[in-house]
């Protein structure tokens, strides 16, 4: 029997890897498309890069059209969740394309920049565009969180109207985030994922195969507590 430096045999490691591979094969996979929207320069791309790659760059590279990133979450023993994160350009010249980019989205994060008050004012415009152009298969609005980004720069106070805006518009939750300091991004994504799983379970979304995004199998709301798949 061959052995490796810590005394565990190579065969045993291969067996453990095989067991993991087999148990992974039995996992139910849920694929959710989330769209990340908001004015240019608020930090959408940076939030996604932080969440998916654990990186931050202070260089601003404008997103053209839309970009895409994948984050896989080992949600529980039986469920893997693949988040298809669509990074939608904030510049107005791409506004006419949003309907195409929103297609099949089951949740959204609207981002504004705490250091640029005008980006908070534009949240209403982004929300109304979203609610006009995308719905859940049952016709309901998709769940939305608001991210008050660049919380590392300013004293962490949000516009006083934010709370009322969220109540009036049935926003799931808001978070002060920082792509630079990795603040509350995981929490926000978990909140959205919980809502997506809950909706998926209630509505029994069909499997979508004509797009990169598919919604498979069956699946339940809370803060950062994880819902289990049904
Ligand atoms: N200090 C700080 N800077 C940030 C943060 N998030 C983004 N930035 C900076 O803000 C600038 C714009 O960030 P992006 O992520 O490119 O903004 P965007 O929303 O994707 O912009 P568009 O692609 O044009 O829609 C970059 O220089 C980032 O480094 C943050 O949390 N804190
Ligand atoms: Mg961008």
From TrEMBL:
Extract the Pfam families matched here: Ras
Q: Sorted alphabetically, which keywords does the UniProt record give?
A: GTP-binding, Lipoprotein, Membrane, Nucleotide-binding, Prenylation
Report the InterPro entries cross-referenced here.
P-loop_NTPase, Rab29/Rab38/Rab32, Small_GTP-bd, Small_GTPase
* The keyword GTP-binding belongs to this UniProt entry's keyword annotation: yes
Q: Which domain of life is it from?
A: Eukaryota
Q: Does the keyword Ribonucleoprotein apply?
A: no
Localization per record: Membrane
Family, according to the entry, reads as follows: Belongs to the small GTPase superfamily. Rab family.
Which NCBIfam families does this UniProt record tie to the protein?
small_GTP
Protein name, UniProt field: Ras-related protein Rab
**Taxonomically, what lineage is the organism?**
Eukaryota, Metazoa, Ecdysozoa, Arthropoda, Hexapoda
């Amino acid at each position: 029997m061959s052995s490796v430096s810590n005394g565990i045999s190579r065969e045993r490691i291969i067996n453990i890897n095989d067991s993991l591979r087999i148990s992974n094969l039995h996992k139910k996979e849920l694929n959710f498309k989330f769209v990340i929207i908001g004015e240019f320069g608020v930090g959408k791309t940076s939030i996604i890069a932080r969440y998916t790659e654990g990186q931050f760059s202070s260089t601003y590279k404008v997103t053209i059209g839309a970009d895409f990133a994948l984050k896989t979450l080992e949600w529980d023993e039986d469920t893997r969740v693949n988040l298809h994160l669509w990074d939608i350009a904030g510049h107005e010249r791409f506004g006419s394309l949003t309907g195409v980019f929103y297609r099949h989205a089951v949740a959204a994060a609207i981002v504004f920049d705490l250091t640029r008050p005008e980006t908070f004012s534009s949240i209403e415009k982004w929300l109304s565009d979203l609610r006009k152009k995308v719905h859940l298969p049952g016709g309901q609005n998709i769940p939305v969180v608001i991210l008050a980004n660049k919380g590392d720069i300013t004293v962490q106070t949000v516009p006083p109207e934010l709370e009322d805006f969220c109540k009036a518009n049935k926003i799931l939750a808001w978070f002060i985030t920082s792509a630079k300091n990795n603040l509350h991004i995981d929490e926000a994504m978990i909140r959205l994922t919980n809502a997506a799983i809950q909706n998926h379970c209630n509505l029994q979304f069909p499997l979508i195969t004509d797009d990169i995004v598919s919604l498979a199998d069956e699946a339940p709301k809370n803060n950062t507590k994880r819902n289990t798949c049904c």
